[in-house]
Design goal:
The chain has five helices and no strands. It is mostly helical. Helix 3 packs parallel to helix 5 (110-131) and helix 4 runs antiparallel to helix 5. The protein is elongated. The two termini are 17 Å apart.
């Protein structure tokens, strides 16, 4: 197996994680709208989170944006490595799946599992897009 640039995968993973956190925060604020106030207790915030997850299209939108960031993560890993893009896309997908499995709770829905199922193909697709910008190896 060709050597994979762990530095490239790590940089792409952290970049994707940060993008996901920002996007999910913005989506949560958008879907929570008037339910959020200053000085909320942890219990009140948990109730707002539960309401947003149960009554809005928050989860499907996070799936859409998560897919986009996963493609971007595979692309970034391959572009930073500048060689063997498909291996770097695969490595990126595996890292994200392992990280996601560590964070998943026991009561997850079908969309979360769908998100896990499409993670590796999306990261490989991102690497495929990056392949056009990587010079061929001698």
């Amino acid at each position: 197996m060709p050597p994979i640039s762990f530095k490239a995968v790590a940089i792409a993973f952290v970049s994707e994680l940060m993008a996901d956190l920002v996007i999910q925060s913005v989506l949560f604020v958008m879907f929570a709208q008037g339910m959020l106030t200053e000085g909320m207790t942890d219990e009140e915030l948990a109730n707002v989170r539960k309401t947003v997850l149960e009554t809005t299209a928050y989860i499907p939108w996070t799936l859409v944006f998560g897919t986009a960031t996963m493609i971007g993560g595979g692309y970034l890993a391959a572009r930073i490595a500048k060689r063997i893009p498909y291996y770097h896309g695969l490595a990126m997908g595996i890292v994200v799946v392992v990280f996601s499995l560590m964070l998943l709770s026991t009561n997850v829905g079908a969309l979360e599992y769908l998100g896990l199922a499409i993670t590796i193909p999306c990261s490989i697709y991102g690497a495929h897009l990056a392949r056009k910008h990587i010079p061929p190896e001698p």
